[in-house]
Amino acid sequence: MTEVLNFFLKYCLPFIVAYLLNFLMNKFLSKEMLRGKIHLIFLKGIIIAVIWAAAALTALSGIPAFSKTWETAVASSGIAAVVLGLAAQSTLANVFAGIALSASHSRPFDIGDRIMINSYDPGFVENITLRHTVIKTYQNEIIYIPNSIVGAATIVNYTQEKSFSYPIDISVAYGTDMERAKEIMADVITAHPKHCGSRPSVLCRSCDDSGVTLRALMETADFKDNPIACSDVRIELMKRFSEEGIEIPYNKLVLINGKE
């Protein structure tokens, strides 16, 4: 009975304590609670790693063979440090890059921000771990990018602006009352419930073979509202132009059935 108890205390109890501490941290410091606090999320990851490492070392220290090996390793710590440093060079680079990304007051992004890193598809920052940054794209794809790459990359952050704008283009036929078409376009955009900011300016983007392309910006407070708002505006513009007799040019196919 005593041997079983000693075995439990030496080898099982450290991992049970580590599991309980990990469970409590995940419960009281959830991702939702830490949203917008990327430095705390990264610090949480470091603490969890230290807890499990301490549990493993505590359990292994009860093994005589490991204790002797550990004493030998400490005695030759200089050589061991060089070997471990070379072996874990990539891992350490990711850890230190993660610290730089999350601890800086001028950090380039936070959890929930919409960003684009180099040539990767833009998406939302889901998490940052000791090794990688997690991005969720618009297609619900999860991208894991090593922190060392993120730290050296060019990052575009779309969330730091207070609003998001996207251009809406629509063509009208030559001969159209351009001032009236521009007025209708500005009215439709301004009337949309998700539109924010001032009345948009409508400009001539190009003069094409079939018509004149007008452009205006649809500005919304939240990026997630913008695609639907742009779709609503395009549909409403087609209705209003039809009511006003303004033609939207499009290619027509005419079939002629000739008789010899």
Walk me through the structure.
The chain is about 50% helix and about 20% strand. It is of the alpha+beta class. It folds into two domains: about 1-155, no CATH class; about 165-245, 2-Layer Sandwich (Alpha-Beta Plaits), CATH 3.30.70. The strands form two sheets. A five-stranded antiparallel sheet has the order 4-3-2-1-5. Strands 6-8-7 form a three-stranded antiparallel sheet. The model has no long low-confidence stretch (mean pLDDT about 80).
**Spatial order of strands in the largest sheet:** 4-3-2-1-5
Helix percent reads 40-55%
Order of helices and strands: HHHHHEEEEHEEHEEH
Number of E-state strands: 8
Our count of domains comes out at: 2
Family: Belongs to the MscS (TC 1.A.23) family.
GO molecular function, one term: mechanosensitive monoatomic ion channel activity
Domain Mechanosensitive ion channel MscS C-terminal: 168-248
Membrane topology: Multi-pass membrane protein
Secondary-structure map with pairings?
Layout (H helix, E strand, L loop, with lengths): L1 H27 L9 H23 L3 H12 L1 H11 L1 H15 L10 E4 L5 E6 L3 E6 L4 E5 H6 L2 E3 L6 E9 L5 H14 L11 E5 L4 E9 L5 H19 L16
Antiparallel strand pairs: 1-2, 1-5, 2-3, 3-4, 6-8, 7-8
Membrane topology: Multi-pass membrane protein
Subcellular location: Cell membrane
GO molecular function: mechanosensitive monoatomic ion channel activity
Would you kindly provide a brief summary of this structure?
The chain is 49% helix and 18% strand.
Keywords:
260 residues; Alpha-Beta Plaits; 8 helices; alpha+beta; single chain; 18% strand; 3-stranded antiparallel beta sheet; 5-stranded antiparallel beta sheet; 2 domains
